[in-house]
Amino acid sequence: xxxxxxxxxxxxxxxxxxxxxxxRDASAYVLGQLVELSxxxxxxxxxxxxxxxxxxxxxxxxxxxxxxxxxxxxxxDLGRPLKIKHLAFRPGAGFLxxxxxxxxxxxxxxxxxxxxxxxxxxxxxxxxxxxxxxxxPNHPHLLLGGKDGTxxxxxxxxxxxxxxSRIPNCWVQxxxxxxxxxxxxxxxxxHIPVCTDVKTHPLDLNLVLIAYDxxxxxxxxxxxxxERNWEFVIPPGAVGGGNDTEDTIFSERRPPVTCLAWRPDxxxxxxxxxxxxxxxxxVSDDNPITIRTIERDAVNKxxxxxxxxxxxKSPEARRQTACREPIFRLAWSSFEQETMxxxxxxxxxxxxxxxxxxxxxxxLPTPDSPxxxxxxxxxxLGGLLPKDPPGIHTLAFPPYVAPPNAASASSNISYxxxxxLKASIxxxxxxxxxxxxxxxxxxxxPRSSPxxxxxxxxxxxxxxxxxxxxxPVLAAPHASRGIxxxxxxxxxxxxxxxxxxxxxxxxxxGPGTCVSARLLNVQTLAYRRxxxxxxxxxxxxxxxxxxxxxAFPRLRPSRTGMRNHVPLDNQPRIVVxxxxxxxxxxxxxxxxxxQADRNDxxxxxxxxxxxxxxxxxxxxxxxxxxxxRPLAHLDFxxxxxxxxxxxxxxxxxxxxxxxxxxxxxxxxxxxxxTCELAVALLNYGDLRDLSTIEHDxxxxxxxxxxxxxxxxxxxxxxxxxxxxxxxxxxxxxxxxPTPSRLRxxxxxxxxxxxxxxxxxxxxxxxxxVLARRPDRDSFRxxxxxxxxxxxxxxxxxxxxxxxxxxxxASSGNILLIADLRGPEVLLYDDxxxxxxxxxxxxxxxxxxxxxxxxxxxxxAVGDDHDRxxxxxxxxxxGTTRIFExxxxxxxxxxxxxxVTFQHDSVKNAIATFVLDPLGNELLADPLRLQQAMNQxxxxxxxxxxxxxxxxxxxxxxxxxxxxxxxxxxxxxxxDMASAFKSAAVVLKDGCPVLIATTxxxxxVAFSLPSLTQITRMSFDAAIHTDVGTISIAADGDLxxxxxxxxxxxxxxxxxxxxxxxxxxxxxxxxxxxxxxTNALVGAASNLxxxxxxxxxxxxxxxxxxxxxxxxxxxxxxxRRRATAATPFTTPQSSTPxxxxxxxxxxxxxxxxxxxxxxxxxxxxxxxxxxRGEYMSALQERLGTMANDAAKFAADTKKIAQQEAAKGTIKxxxxxxxxx
Length: 1219
Prior knowledge:
Blueprint: H1 4-14, H2 20-23, E1 32-36, E2 43-49, E3 54-59, E4 63-67, E5 73-77, E6 84-90, E7 95-100, E8 104-114, E9 117-125, E10 130-135, E11 141-146, E12 151-155, E13 160-161, H3 172-180, E14 195-200, E15 207-212, E16 216-220, E17 225-230, E18 257-262, E19 268-273, E20 278-282, E21 290-292, H4 304-309, E22 327-334, H5 340-348, H6 350-354, E23 376-382, E24 391-397, H7 415-423, E25 429-434, E26 439-446, E27 458-465, E28 482-487, E29 499-500, E30 514-521, H8 524-530, H9 536-541, E31 550-552, E32 573-579, E33 583-588, H10 612-619, E34 629-630, E35 636-637, H11 638-642, H12 651-658, E36 664-671, E37 676-682, E38 688-695, H13 700-703, H14 706-715, E39 763-765, E40 779-787, E41 797-801, E42 806-811, E43 814-819, E44 824-829, E45 836-837, E46 840-841, E47 851-861, E48 864-875, E49 879-888, E50 891-894, E51 899-902, E52 911-915, H15 926-933, E53 949-953, E54 957-962, E55 968-973, E56 980-988, E57 991-998, E58 1002-1007, E59 1013-1018, E60 1029-1032, E61 1037-1043, E62 1046-1051, E63 1063-1065, H16 1078-1092, H17 1101-1109, ...
Antiparallel strand pairs: 1-62, 2-3, 3-4, 4-5, 6-7, 7-8, 8-9, 10-11, 11-12, 12-13, 14-15, 15-16, 16-17, 18-19, 19-20, 20-21, 22-23, 23-24, 24-25, 26-27, 27-28, 28-29, 30-32, 31-63, 32-33, 33-34, 33-35, 36-37, 37-38, 38-40, 39-40, 41-42, 42-43, 43-44, 45-46, 47-48, 48-49, 49-50, 49-51, 52-53, ...
Protein name: BZ3500_MvSof-1268-A1-R1_Chr6-1g08379 protein
Organism: Microbotryum saponariae
Keywords: Coiled coil, Cytoplasm, Exocytosis
């Protein structure tokens, strides 16, 4: 039976309806996934198209990602979770080829996007295990090297293999020669040479260089024969790569070849070996020019020092096995040479470049003058010793100067040519791109040229690295491989190139692996404050040079149809994420990023242009910003604080220097009004350090509105946020980092309850830590608050940061309350120690259960109608304590005796909320604090004593209590199977509702204050059984953190939202593929004439297309590729974006019909004429093919007759001589 007080409370609350009919409309809730923030699995392959400016990334679970301009990003998968081993573009043609671990080749057409993924143009299961892939921009054929030593040719245009063009294993015959010659350690006949790399000649497309584990072969595609073989032999006594022992050093060694790289002039090539050596050879000589390692030349020559080093008396001087790693990849780069023509072209294009839109991504600076005079650069992955620092090495070579014409007695090059070639590969300087972990792969990003093995004139380099041993190893699935980008080439004299920024999805791997993330709504003023000094041009200049694709905004399709009223979604949202490298990063995920700028978006998308491409070019409703948008200027690195001498008193500072893999960020909280950040560090059970960081900027007060500025002034004397210059003096920690640093004149310690630990011992001042970039917006450290380790590993750890400058943290059952405006510790509560009073030691044992939830609010409690900042602390046992913050003599005090009560329905609370009589959440923000201090609230007696409603969510029960500690007014009981995991009060079209997530991967909406279920939504079916950790924003968006590989952004209002990905156009048919100039082809012809002694034909791309295509090549299929993206229609703007023009008088309906008929007839006639031209061209081509086929048959018949005649004559002479 209810008491009169409970009955009155229920009558007051039951008469209210916060959610109203709008919030209780179940059809208004539609759960949909907006974007995937991570790659989903480990990165395995990278490819780049310099013509279109697109970057492709493949993952271990069959995922594919395309990156272009900042708003261009498209993700899809193969349909099966198979690792993708190889990835290659056909440059400029819009085709992407990949080979999975089952050796199935997939080709995707980027010019045809269906259902938010490129159309699968062809798919083929290959007969052999693929070891390497080579694509050419000059013809549509893909070379696929196999483990059986053969090289298959795949026709991308036709989607078939060309069996007549298959290259056989060219090294089988060479191994047979070695066996017959009696060479020691010759491979057995069971050994099958493996093809390790394939590279096409940079100028003569007819020549293909094939690397085998025993050597290198130069294959002629037109004549289908091997022109030359190279064996790279290390003679007895030569040091080689240094991996040999005393037993093998005095024998011949043939280190297996691992990779190849052509010099851009096609005269020489470099071959990497398994022992860490690099061989340089000329295409016109059987012997290598030289063999070297990264640090030493001519390692194929025996020296006296190397021989006697094996017999040295002292162990220090005796030579040991070097354990040098293999050469994994080589890239030989050239650069644009400045000529009179290039200077004239640059001056002519200057006006056009100046007229370029500001939204275009600026290119990286052109290389310095030392690289524009014929120099080349060799980039090397591997070949390092265990003692060497990890990184990518580059060797700069001088230009090649050909000697005077010198005749040679043999088929090889002359001595003068050999010396000139040797001089051209003597390094002028050496540079290293340092990495924290050993690099695993790299790729160069050329500016525009797809030729020369994608190594000509690169402007950037992307490096993938291995697992960092200095970072903590996560138990959840994560991507351990890192990825980073650098500017290229390195400038001589500068020790470190400029590091470039990658797209957001690529930065969440390796050191950037995310361990936690929160989604927050930000007020407009705070959002502008966070974007202060954020220059779009600086953001684009630091990004890797990706210029491909176009993105157009479009509305997201809804599964329930469009409603009559779709509210505008302009609420700014940010993601605050913590990563394993101890960096807290910020990302902007506002819907405005997926909408066209007002200056660019037209008033109407209706156009009178004849083609969609022309209409799109005229209107240009393009997206210009990345989604999610990294706010790199706000990133905060905890390591910069811990490595400062002021933080030497922290245990985490010592651990970072000795055992950095034991540090991890476990919690972070961000105050959206005051822009303050709290970060909690965990060092695996030794100590928990809580570092609180405060945003500091001198002009912060000018950007706050009048209300918030007054609240900050009333909140505390001399607010550091409002006026940093007037902040209270702090003692600088120079030598002795004493943790007792409270502000002057504080009265908090005078009336502080005697705890088991002095509050001054819980704080270390970090205000003297220097900012890494004082010229940029960022966070600066205020102080570190220390908490002891919990009683158990499963004890909860809570952090709650209020927008009024208060911080609360708990570790197990220990509670700490701090004032950040001092900063100082207001309360340190340890319930395991018995309290002391006036009558001596108390006999009652305090509640030692762990704290499960913390909540700051500005509200009254029960019969206490004073609105003050209060902290609601709930414990696992159901005990609730409410601490009041009081402002006395300019300082803040924590109440010595908190309001304490207990409810069974509050046990193990996961979230609590305090609502006012209108349904608004009573948050601890500056506005409510100012109203509380000025007593601007309405008296509670006008509402019958009703001042607040406390909503508590536990895993099993949701309850509502009158005036926080009053009677219960509503309750919802669940079951253990669908236990709640998180909850938040969400404004649904302005009406508050309660959103809770369950362990069964469902989301439940409840009305307020009755707590009746409105609807239940389920996540899409997936392989993940756990819903993960969900952060719910105030507008209904959710951030689902399943593991570091699966971080997704959802919304419960999937109606009328901008679509992600937007409407994309990845392939631009108007961009031509740069061709090799006639000067280069002529130079190649002259070089071959000079070296071979006769004029040799240089084949072009069309010639190779005909040769590799074969005689029975079928016609290419007709592909319906999109030429332009269709933008969505937006509401007509009230303010025209362009000056109004005079409209022509409207025509009558008859004239309109006549005009339409004439236009249709004209377009039909034009299409028929074009069809006739196509048919004529096709007939002419078929006739030419028929003539060529007849000529080929006649030539074949003639050759066969000649060979038969030769055989007859030979047999006759043989029989005659045998007599």
